[in-house]
Amino acid sequence: MEAVQTALEAMTRDGRSWQPSYLLAINPDTCIGCGRCFKVCGQSVMALLGMTEDGDLVGLDDDDEIERKIMTVSDPGACIGCAACQRVCPKNCQTHGPS
């Protein structure tokens, strides 16, 4: 039997319709690693990593030469779809959508 996935629709406290918008991806080319999205996320969905000159992602504690920092989606299943991270991103580098 094949499972059919449908978009979740919920209601706000006053009865308005609301549909979650889950974090699907962060564009590493446009992310500046400012951490604003990380600070507003109460679910620990993202992690800050370093990017080397070769484009490899490494932990910030690694001895590799870090060219710049970028945010990554480390636990997508923890996202509750509030899209707070999208609202604070100055570079609009995140992709959101239904589950």
DSSP summary: helix tally? 2
Number of DSSP-assigned strands: 7
As for the CATH topology, it is: Alpha-Beta Plaits
End-to-end separation: 20 Å
Largest sheet: 3 strands, antiparallel
Radius of gyration (CA) equals: 16 Å
Which structural class do you get from the secondary structure elements?
Answer: mainly beta
What's the helical proportion of residues?
10-25%
CATH class, named Alpha Beta
Strand content: 25-35%
Number of domains: 1
Strand order of the largest sheet: 5-4-6
Mean residue pLDDT: 90
| Uncertain spans | none
Shape call: elongated
At CATH level 2, the architecture is: 2-Layer Sandwich
Order of helices and strands: EEEHEEEHE
What is the element layout, followed by pairings?
Elements: E1 10-11, E2 17-18, E3 22-26, H1 36-40, E4 46-52, E5 57-58, E6 66-73, H2 84-88, E7 94-97
Antiparallel strand pairs: 1-2, 3-7, 4-5, 4-6
Keywords:
99 residues; mainly beta; Alpha-Beta Plaits; three-stranded antiparallel β-sheet; two-stranded antiparallel sheet; 7 strands; 10% helix; elongated
What would you note in describing this structure?
- This protein has 99 residues and is mainly beta.
- The protein has a single domain (20-97), classed as Alpha-Beta Plaits (2-Layer Sandwich), CATH 3.30.70.20.
- It is built from two helices and seven strands.
- The chain has a three-stranded antiparallel sheet with strand order 5-4-6, with no helix packed on it.
- Strand 1 (10-11) and strand 2 (17-18) form a beta hairpin.
- The chain starts with 9 loop residues before the first strand and ends with a strand.
- The model has no long low-confidence stretch (mean pLDDT 90).
